[in-house]
Amino acid sequence: MRTSLTVEEALQTVLEHTRPLTEVEEVPLTEALGRVLARDLEALADHPDVDNTAVDGYAARAEDTAGASPENPVRLRWIGESPAGRPFPSRLGPGEAVSVYTGAPLPEGADAVVAVEDTERDGEFVVLYKPATPKDIRPKAQDLQKGRVYLKRGDVLTPGRVGLAAGMGHATLPVVRRPRVGILSTGDEVVEPGTPLPPGGVYNSNAYSVAALVREAGGEPVLLGKVDDTIPELKARLEGAGRLDLILTSGGVSMGDYDIVRHLLEQEGTIHFWKILQRPGGPPLFAEFAGTPLFGLPGNPVSAMVVFFLYGRPMLFKMLGRTDPPYRKVRAVADDFFKGAGKKVAFRRAVLRYDPGAPGGHRAASVDNQSSGVLRSMAFGNALVIVPPHAHVEAGEVVDVIPFGEVQSA
Ligand code: AMP
Ligand code: MG
Question: Does the predicted model carry a pTM greater than 0.90?
């Protein structure tokens, strides 16, 4: 069993043991938000499918309206109208105008439009105070060309992309199956929220924070409840869990006698590694149990979240074939002192704000308590300041920061 890996070694190892999912689901557009495309998607039609007008006004021939101005208006004969979706049934000839409305096909014979505010109607005539021009015509296929690929396998479906897929003519979209991620909490002291807290008890926050992180990363959390600190109970619950793509346990991986996750996997699984040189989140374990990858998250609430974010989230991205990075790093000026952790990398929680005047464009202020048992730091902080090994960060230094929530404005 490898032990005490660097952050980079740990990430590399978990990704080596992660396979992209191959099952594809066809989902309706209304269910597609946040899903990952499983295939390239091409436009089923041109958009617009014909030249159309971007303004309400009149279509005409540019050459008939040249030089029109308030002093020298041009009069054209009005011959009818073309609302959106209803092409003008005949051809427009010299000296003629047709009313058009935004999105309406340009009548045959017309090559220009003039906005209604630059005109006046006079019975069967239209008076133009400006020339009709082609600039307000949206040419055929300006937005989308039939047969061209606009969305690629691995793209996450944002609201704009759901709209684009609909605009391309697709009613359903092929997406990668969501990875099923089992979440099992361990600990005699752990009780469910909503029940009375016995002396020495602690509410199970890990199952819910981690389930939320799983969902945010595109996975489907499967809550497996909690087990007391006994190996037979843990084993039975894992064996009864059904088909999963990843198992996450919380607690029971450090050095104590009750660290049952580690003991069970030593006996019955394959441990790829135990412990990462980082704080918080030093004791995680990465293993395989009955053919399923298992990540043993530490029990401390901050550690469980940080470890999932740094390693579990990239695993899910790989399973989903996502092409966007699982997290990013930005540079920021430290507003406060951030303590290092000796030979380990420290991920200190911070409130990250935009500041166009600061190096890197951001500032990072420390949360009030950096204990790995204080979950408020993950609820009100939005970023991890990276303190390299054998170092501290002094206020005013420029540091690497990993945002995990929305970055605030200065
Ligand atoms: P462990 O890793 O099992 O030694 O647990 C470390 C700390 O995390 C202990 O203080 C536990 O009470 C706490 N803890 C363990 N599991 C959970 C959980 N599911 N939710 C909240 N706190 C937990
Ligand atoms: Mg425990």
Answer: yes
